[in-house]
Amino acid sequence: MTGLRYVYAVCRPFRSALQAQLTGVAGVPPKQLTHHGLVAVVSTVPEADFAEAPLRAHLEDLDWLSTTARAHQQVIDALTAVTTPLPLRLATVFRDDSGVRSMMEAREDDFRRVLDRLEGRVEWGVKVYAEPESAQSPQSAKPTEPTETDRPAKTDRPDAKAMSGRDYLRRRRMQTRAREDVWQRAAEFAGRLHETLSSFAEDSRLHAPQNAALSGASGQNVLNAAYLVPRADSEEFVELVDREKDDAPGIRVELTGPWAAYSFTGEFAEDPEVGP
């Protein structure tokens, strides 16, 4: 099959077979390309979609990008189950096998250095969210129109309206304080949790808090961290997170993984790259 070479990851040779039904980007099964004792996991993709100009256009298409990212991640997940991959940037593409080998040779020392560091290790993600359970938006907290049964006599209505306005403002102040209290408690808890988990893990990374509008997650993200953990210690790490969880209302802890160590691969897994 002719086409360009899409590179998912570089790793050391591994014996375990990947899933027989595994497909990657563009629905094509990945294959191994060996060079100087390293393996590039690649698949063939159509030039009409992955040459430089169409690829640049596709990267602005969120639906196309999402589909490609899921296929890319599917291959990385399969590799993580059998070896320690060094994931490359999404949409790293080369003209042919020779271009891939040239890239591997040029960066061989860097690949070996990072693979030595990551060998036998996985990444776990931990997020902490502040979720004020009783907080309401000002719109939902506004006073409701009284019913005929509850409606006071006309002579009393001015005072009733004034009282209703004061109640509304008081509720808003209470809601604001409640949100601030939960956020402060969640931030303090997140700091303690990160310190504890960092002491257990071999390395850690703090990422910028996620934007709820983009992530779709409820609550305010106050901790977004990644931890590099030996695969053999993963069960103990998960138990540690469970023990450290705060039962206080309004605080939620989310644990994800194990993943390939994206957060610890330096420049290799950053923005999309189009190779020669």
TrEMBL record:
Q: Which InterPro entries match?
A: GvpL/GvpF (IPR009430)
List the keywords (alphabetical): Gas vesicle
UniProt subcellular location: Gas vesicle
Q: Where is this region: Disordered?
A: 129-173
Locations of Basic and acidic residues compositional bias? 148-160
Q: Which GO terms describe its cellular component?
A: gas vesicle
GO terms classed as biological process:
gas vesicle organization
Chief location bin: other
Know the name of this protein? Gas vesicle protein
What lineage does the source organism belong to? Bacteria, Bacillati, Actinomycetota, Actinomycetes, Kitasatosporales
